[in-house]
Amino acid sequence: MIAARFRARPNRFLTVVELRGKSLEAHLPDPGRLRELLVPGCRVWVRPARSRGRKTGYTLAVVEAESGELVSVVTTLPNDLVAEALCDKRISELLDWTVAGREYPWGHSRFDFLLAAGDARRMLVEVKSVTLVEGRRALFPDAVTARAARHVRELAEACRANGLEAAVIFVVQRRDADEVAAARTIDPVLADALTDARRAGVQLLAYRCIVTLDEARIAERLPVSVG
User: Fold this and answer.
1) Ordered domains of the chain (ranges, CATH)
2) With contact defined as beta carbons under 8 Å apart, do 141 and 187 qualify?
3) Is the pLDDT at 55 greater than 90, yes or no?
4) Which helix (H) or strand (E) holds 87?
5) Separation between Cα atoms, residue 141 and residue 214, nearest integer Å
6) In terms of C-beta distances under 8 Å and separation of at least 24 residues, what long-range contacts does 109-115 make, across chains too?
7) pLDDT tens string 151-166
8) Which of 13, 127, 137, 169 would you call most buried, defined as having the most Cβ atoms within 10 angstroms of its Cβ?
9) Contacts 24+ apart (CB under 8 A), 87-94
10) Nearest CA to 114 among 92, 97, 89?
11) 121 pairs with which residues across the strands?
12) Which residues, other chains included, contact 121 with Cβ-Cβ below 8 Å and sequence gap of 6+?
């Protein structure tokens, strides 16, 4: 990855960065608000695009927060980290489960994983990327997201009426958080959906990530609060 400076964000998926004295456009994988991270002049790291014919030649991958913490803004990374952790048996709550499918369609959604345990048990799993941290509390979401609320409601329905098990795994893409909480002041509808899902039996799990310029990996489990 290459160090640069963030300058502007013309739209949700596009940033302008200063790289070696030139202004260049870089794709932003995370459509969230990110106002606390993407401060003009902050240091970021970009990587060259891997596919030809793309409109932008770079992807913005890591942001240095005001605290100096490195934060990944690649929203596809948590899914890959969870897949790796499941295969390596590093998620203690899911040791008995194996990955039976990815992008599994159920109801009106596609869920990140379908897990299997034995012949009868099946679990739907949705992974959520978390980047917003306030006072060592990671908050999800950082902007209203009807899609996430729909996912959570359908997971609750799967537990209540369809004999399935379900889990939401929050992956905090930075090290400086001690817990994960529903951002009720940002999206009360999602917070209510998470509260109802927990009552329905949906597991709410969260893990902190170690993020460096060389690697990212899942580390300690964090408590989850939805109240």
Assistant:
1) 2-72 (2.40.50.580), 77-225 (3.40.1350.60)
2) yes
3) no
4) helix 77-87
5) 27
6) 109/150, 109/151, 109/154, 111/151, 111/155, 112/79, 112/82, 113/82, 113/83, 113/86, 115/86
7) 999 999 999 988 899 9
8) 169
9) 90/218, 91/169, 91/205, 91/207, 91/218, 92/221, 93/167, 93/203, 93/205, 94/123, 94/167
10) 97
11) 117
12) 97, 165
Taking the C-alpha atoms of residue 190 and residue 156, their distance in angstroms, rounded to an integer, is 13
pLDDT (0 to 100) of residue 161: 86
Give the predicted TM-score (pTM) of the model. Answer: 0.94
* Helix, strand, or coil (residue 101): strand
Buried b (16+ CB within 10 A) or exposed e, 32-49: bbbeebbeeeeebbbeee
Amino acid at 227: G
Please tell me whether residue 58 adopts helix, strand or coil conformation. Answer: strand
Q: Angle at Cα 162 formed by Cα 161 and Cα 165, nearest 5°?
A: 105
For the record, the structure tokens of 35 come out as: 């106002």
Residues 6+ apart with CB under 8 A from 160: 200, 201
HSE-up of residue 188 (Cα within 13 Å, Cβ side): 1
Tell me whether residue 153 is exposed, middle or buried, using C-beta atoms within 10 angstroms of its C-beta: 0 to 12, 13 to 18, 19 or more.
Answer: buried
- Residue 51 pLDDT > 90, yes or no? no
Give the integer Cα–Cα distance in Å for 168 and 6: 32
Interatomic CA distance for residues 47 and 49, integer angstroms? 6
